[in-house]
Design goal:
4-stranded antiparallel β-sheet, 7% helix, 37% strand
Length: 139
């Protein structure tokens, strides 16, 4: 969630429908009039083209007339080799998406479980805890 450079528009990412919503707050600041659905706009987030899964947008930042969105490819139907992080920009004037950078999430990272130093790295998205952490379900 972030405000436009002039502070009159609130932007936020809806994690469920993978869209950005903007709410014009100009009238609220001028007269205290609450925004209505007429003050809300939707921006479809550009799919980075994930393989073996879907994209999941999270981060949002507005800076100098552009909106930056951070997202990951979750590899939910693949392996960790399909995990990728992306940053895309959206020009608020021209309404055009551009790639900023991307990188694979295949590098080793810190320990998600401080009690177990053998577990490192990133994991595919799954609703099944046994897939993400096989030790959760013990025989």
């Amino acid at each position: 969630m972030d405000l436009s450079d002039d502070g009159n528009t609130l932007f936020f990412v809806n994690l469920f429908d993978k869209k950005v919503y903007s709410i014009d707050l100009t009238n609220y600041f001028a007269s205290g009039t609450l925004p209505t659905s007429a003050n809300v706009n939707t921006i479809n987030i550009s799919d980075p083209g994930c393989s073996n899964g879907s994209f999941r947008p999270f981060a949002l930042k507005i800076r100098e007339g552009k909106m930056y969105i951070g997202m990951v490819c979750d590899a939910s139907s693949g392996t960790t080799s399909s995990l990728v992080a992306y940053v895309k920009s959206y020009d608020l004037t021209t309404q055009v998406w551009s790639d900023v950078f991307d990188f694979p999430l295949t590098y080793p990272k810190g320990y998600p479980d401080q009690a177990d130093g053998t577990r490192t790295g990133w994991y595919v998205w799954s609703d099944d805890p046994a897939v993400v952490n096989p030790e959760i379900i013990r025989p």
